[in-house]
């Protein structure tokens, strides 16, 4: 029997030490900001081969309509052309720009990644499918019941009771805090924000620029 819980999620942004060299770049093909290093992908949800030559980092928020659009419009192209060919992998970083509901969805997704990684991306896209089509994204819709329903709808082995407990106890709050530290470190101000290795793209929806950035990075290898 599904457990329905009410949960208040308090997530704190960690202070980030160290220094990153940041350089704005602009070419006829690619516009963006280049950092001295790519985000750390250790422990992050990953789609594709772990040893792929290029890592795409998506800073996303499950309450963000643009993130849903990126998941539906851009990711399938990226997956078919680069991820399935083994050249590129995708890492997802939770970005909590829409309050407690963003935090709750992030906690649930981290639980699924930790316990059922084979089901993560289906759960990930399932949350976006629950996002209302005709409604302000600020209106409440992310609830424990919704997230349990998403997991229940999948053809997977996700333990629903364990997922509910992880939301109640905030089991993976440290992982969410780690993500928000990356958000601060890489000066993420909008979702989705897309990075190709150490290059933060200006326009996440310009697939031709994304493709060109990947090709340029591959040529450098």
From TrEMBL:
Keywords: Disulfide bond, Isomerase, Oxidoreductase, Redox-active center, Signal. Residues 32-219 form the Thioredoxin domain. Pfam families: Thioredoxin_4. GO terms for molecular function: isomerase activity. PROSITE patterns: THIOREDOXIN_2 (PS51352). InterPro entries: Thioredoxin-like_fold, Thioredoxin-like_sf, Thioredoxin_domain. Belongs to the thioredoxin family. DsbA subfamily. This is Protein-disulfide isomerase. It comes from Alkalicoccobacillus murimartini.
């Amino acid at each position: 029997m599904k457990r329905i819980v009410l949960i208040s999620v308090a997530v704190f942004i960690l202070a980030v030490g160290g220094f990153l060299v940041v350089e704005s770049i602009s070419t006829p093909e690619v516009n963006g900001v280049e950092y001295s290093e790519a985000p750390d992908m250790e422990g992050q949800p990953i789609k594709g081969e772990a040893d792929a030559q290029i890592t795409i980092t998506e800073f996303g928020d499950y309450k963000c309509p643009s993130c849903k659009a990126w998941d539906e419009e851009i990711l399938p192209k990226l997956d078919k052309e680069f991820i399935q060919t083994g050249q590129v992998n995708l890492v997802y970083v939770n970005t909590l720009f829409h309050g407690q509901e963003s935090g709750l969805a992030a906690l649930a997704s981290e639980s699924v990644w930790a316990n059922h990684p084979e089901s993560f991306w289906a759960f990930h896209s399932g949350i976006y499918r629950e996002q209302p089509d005709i409604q302000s994204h600020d209106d409440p819709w992310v609830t424990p019941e919704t997230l349990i329903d998403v997991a229940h709808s999948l053809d997977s082995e996700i333990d629903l009771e364990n997922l509910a407990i992880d939301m109640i106890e905030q089991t993976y709050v440290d992982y969410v805090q780690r993500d928000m530290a990356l958000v601060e470190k890489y000066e993420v101000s909008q979702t989705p924000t897309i990075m190709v290795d150490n290059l933060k793209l200006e326009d996440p929806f310009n697939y031709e620029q994304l493709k060109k950035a990947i090709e340029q990075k591959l040529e450098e290898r």
